[in-house]
Amino acid sequence: MRICFELLELLKAHKKAIRRATVNTFGYIAKAIGDLVHRQTAMAAIQHMALGVCGFGCEDALVHLLNYVWPNIFENSPHVVQAFMGAIEGLRMAIGPSKIFQYSMQGLFHPARKVRDVYWKVYNTVYIGAQDGMIPSYPRIPNDAKNQYLRYDSNSGTSDGGSGSSSSSSSSYSSSVVVVVVVVVVVVVVVVVVVVVVVVVVVVVVIVAAAAVVVEKQNKLYLIKKEKLLIVHTDN
């Protein structure tokens, strides 16, 4: 790998013979060490090249390199897997997470579990690195009879293919509002009834207490008059 990185500098030489010899040297190294290690080295080089030209308008060339990197997604060698994920991360920084998401989306729901696992690994890596940048590239899925995938603003109308679901959601919202209003009215009525009952009880208690006081005073006056009559009778 160190030799290949040194050879990358020779590709910048002005003489065509030097550049040609460098390319041939890459071929000799690939033949000596096999297609596997050479691809690992190539993906590591692509990672650093992508990070080096990030923001310089080289997206077309990097997508071309991505097309060579992506078939290595099913490699099992730990070093190759590490080089592949590093290249994907470098390309994500250079060409954006949306493009990587479009590549990974084709295998997220594959029937084979091993295929899904690899693609979900790439998706989770991109999601951790740039989850906000993936939002514009999410596919639009229309609503069906059971599920509602579209999201609507509270001030806007229905969107494409969502009139039925929107009407059902609005009807459910109105019914929930009616239920809330009914509950509030019932609570208010109950509170008013309780307050009225308490007031009536207090008034009755006050009236009974006042009547008891009046009756007691009348009894005292009657006893006083009776005593006076007895005194006059005894005097006579």
Automatic annotation (TrEMBL):
SUPFAM superfamilies: ARM repeat (SSF48371). InterPro entries: ARM-type_fold, SF3b_su1-like. Residues 152-172 are annotated as: Disordered. Keywords: Membrane, Transmembrane, Transmembrane helix. The chain crosses the membrane at residues 177-210. GO terms for molecular function: mRNA binding. GO terms for biological process: spliceosomal complex assembly. This is Splicing factor 3B subunit 1.
